Amino acid sequence: xxxxxxxxxxxxxxxxxxxxxxxxxxxxxxxxxxxxxxxxxxxxxxxxxxxxxxxxxxxxxxxxxxxxxxxxxxxxxxxxxxxxxxxxxxxxxxxxxxxxxxxxxxxxxxxxxxxxxxxxxxxxxxxxxxxxxxxxxxxxxxxxxxxxxxxxxxxxxxxxxxxxxxxxxxxxxxxxxxxxxxxxxxxxxxxxxxxxxxxxxxxxxxxxxxxxxxxxxxxxxxxxxxxxxxxxxxxxxxxxxxxxxxxxxxxxxxxxxxxxxxxxxxxxxxxxxxxxxxxxxxxxxxxxxxxxxxxxxxxxxxxxxxxxxxxxxxxxxxxxxxxxxxxxxxxxxxxxxxxxxxxxxxxxxxxxxxxxxxxxxxxxxxxxxxxxxxxxxxxxxxxxxxxxxxxxxxxxxxxxxxxxxxxxxxxxxxxxxxxx
Length: 420
Known about the structure:
Layout: H1 2-10, H2 23-33, E1 39-44, H3 48-63, E2 68-73, E3 78-86, H4 88-93, H5 98-109, E4 112-119, E5 122-128, H6 139-142, H7 146-153, E6 156-158, E7 164-166, H8 167-170, E8 171-179, E9 184-185, E10 188-197, H9 203-217, E11 225-230, H10 231-261, H11 264-271, H12 273-287, H13 294-321, H14 341-350, H15 352-371, H16 381-413, H17 415-419
Antiparallel strand pairs: 1-10, 1-11, 2-10, 3-8, 4-5, 6-7, 9-10
Helix pairs in contact: 10-11, 10-13, 11-13, 11-16, 12-13, 12-16, 13-14, 13-15, 13-16, 14-16, 15-16
């Protein structure tokens, strides 16, 4: 609501580019893409006029996408600049080389330090330059006029042979419009289109819509490329890394469970608790209307360990007290040879208190975070806590109903094999 109020007030200012954010997020966004915005579209190419045309077309396409706000194109204002084009043939006829003329022009317009003035601890450069009307420090240098151009044309030069010549005799000097700034990245000229995502819209969905719209409607020619950066690209890299690490974690968990039970069936039964936890986590995000984020993904990975812990408590107790049709370390336990329906129910009832206690210790610790959703600094902690709490609920409930039935069914199916 605060961002919307700020945008509404600033919208009345003509010619102003608005991007509403926060200092820390702006710093992070600037480190990620060089632009203080959540989504940045960069167009690379050799011609500046073509880059501006492509940027305006991209802005039009992005403006029609829901959720896009603070849409701005990097400003490239055309300002008058003095261009000096040296004619090598004319310069050679008078005995000048291009490098000599360029050095003389730099010294005349920009100044050349020829000595230093020392006043106590301070030192000042003694600069030799042309008439201040055409120098870099004059007001005419910021906004060049025909008077400044005429002064440069009348600049006198002494050739190596001693003849006098004017700068206009060896160069073409004219006033031309040129961009006030040329941005480069990786030695390529570029222009950027930046935007933020409005509240209530998902960053990933909006970025995907922008990517699809640009791929379909923005046809850059040969030598021009379009790239999307910002939080969207950073998030995609993070999701890719977290997905790979999550799969690796699941593989390690399965290997550890197989090492513990010495059988694949009970290990898979324990791993079955993980999708049970994911059901509650996703349902909690939908109920709270919280978009899926990196914090939510971290919560899902954390749930894998919590869900597996509950499954280990249940399956280990079944195998110790009810028996099993599968070979295991504790096959010589004092429990019955094969599990029965009554023994599994009794064992499940004995595990209610331990499983609930392990779930409650985690859930109760996260309740203060859930109750202070809008507190500063909870932008990352809230979705993490929401995902874990929602997953704990479904994981615990389904663990008491599905795991006993599944264990009994697998054990009874394995009975003929063991009897042989």
